[in-house]
Design brief:
Elements (H helix, E strand, L loop, with lengths): L1 H14 L7 E3 L5 E3 L13 E6 L4 H16 L3 E6 L3 H10 L4 E5 L6 H7 L3 E18 L20 E3 L6 H12 L7 E3 L3 H13 L6 E5 L3 H4 L2 E3 L11 E8 L2 H4 L1 H9 L4 H15 L4 H12 L9
Parallel strand pairs: 3-4, 7-8
Antiparallel strand pairs: 1-2, 5-11, 6-9, 6-10, 6-11
Helix pairs in contact: 1-6, 2-10, 2-11, 10-11
Length: 306
């Protein structure tokens, strides 16, 4: 199941490039332009648009969880997909997207918040121990980022990253000179799907590879990888994952904002949600995955809408 999901993510990355031109999924198999289009279903309390990057599976998982809960609460929900964080923050600030269902505003997306924060409101933190990592396979004989400089030839002088505009990419670029890696390594950026393809290929062949990863993320369990120690703290401290809304969202949708603010997930709860959405059910069956997760965990929360 996990290997199939990696392949489907690669295909999705190519298709989703349309999102940079403002096109997005409506959550019902069609496409809409920002600011209008068909509904994903729901009720008559108004339409709420959720914007996310499908290859960033924290946002993918929580988008479908919010869609389920908001529709049950009587809202119509539209899902809009993009391939880069920049256009998503722009859409959120401009009101083309109502909610970003899994943002990293404290460290990873801090630059975006400096630019767009005046037009964005924080709707709450649902997970409080997220972090950015540099990882290698478990069988690789180094354990710390400060060992990478001397091992450049072992990794062909490459660190495989994700999207060029991702906060993780920016943080990695800041980290590299701290450890003297800027002269001996190239940070290869493309997409999350491309990075996972490289990781999959290397680990299947038992080859050494360095990649940028993050926690929570299903790939940490799907592949035999380990985080490298970061003695200089150059990849940043742990941070929270937030629900962000366009400015005025809570005033326009107070009931929805109150519901969203209550959502809090621990490691086991979040891990179960992402594993079901990404791995067990997969693309096209996300709503079923959320149903299964709520059946298993719904009784643990007092915010669940039945």
């Amino acid at each position: 199941m996990r290997k199939n999901r990696i392949i489907s993510l690669a295909a999705l990355g190519a298709v989703a490039s349309l999102a940079l031109a403002g096109c997005a999924s409506d959550g019902a198999g069609g496409t809409t332009e920002f600011g209008g289009g068909s509904s994903g279903g729901g009720g008559d309390k108004g339409t709420i648009t959720l914007g996310f990057l499908p290859s960033w599976t924290d946002g993918l998982s929580t988008a479908y969880l919010l869609q389920d809960q908001l529709e049950k609460a009587g809202y119509t929900v539209e899902l809009k997909t993009l391939t880069e964080a920049g256009p998503l923050y722009t859409g959120l600030a401009q009101g083309d997207v109502d909610v970003f269902p899994s943002a990293w505003p404290e460290i990873t997306h801090a630059e975006y918040m400096k630019t767009y924060g005046d037009n964005i409101e924080d709707l709450g933190t649902y997970y409080d121990n997220a972090k950015l990592t540099i990882a290698v396979p478990e069988y690789t004989d180094i354990d710390s980022i400060d060992e990478l400089a001397a091992a450049s030839s072992q990794f062909n002088g490459k660190i495989y990253g994700i999207e060029p505009g991702a906060g993780l990419t920016g943080q990695t670029q800041k980290m590299m000179p701290e450890y003297g890696l800027d002269s001996s390594y190239e940070l290869v950026t493309s997409s999350t799907a491309a990075m996972l393809t490289e990781l999959k290929s290397a680990t299947e062949k038992q080859e050494d590879i360095v990649v940028t990863l993050w926690r929570p993320f299903w790939a940490n369990d799907a592949f035999p990888v380990k985080d490298l120690e970061d003695p200089k703290g150059a990849m940043g401290e742990a941070e929270g994952l937030h629900f962000l809304g366009t400015k005025g969202f809570a005033e326009e949708f107070p009931e929805a904002a109150a519901l969203i603010e209550q959502i809090k997930l621990d490691d086991a709860q979040y891990g179960s949600l992402e594993d079901l959405v990404v791995n067990e059910y997969g693309e096209g069956r996300e709503a079923e995955a959320v149903d299964a997760w709520l059946e298993e965990h719904g009784g643990e929360f007092d915010w669940v809408v039945d």
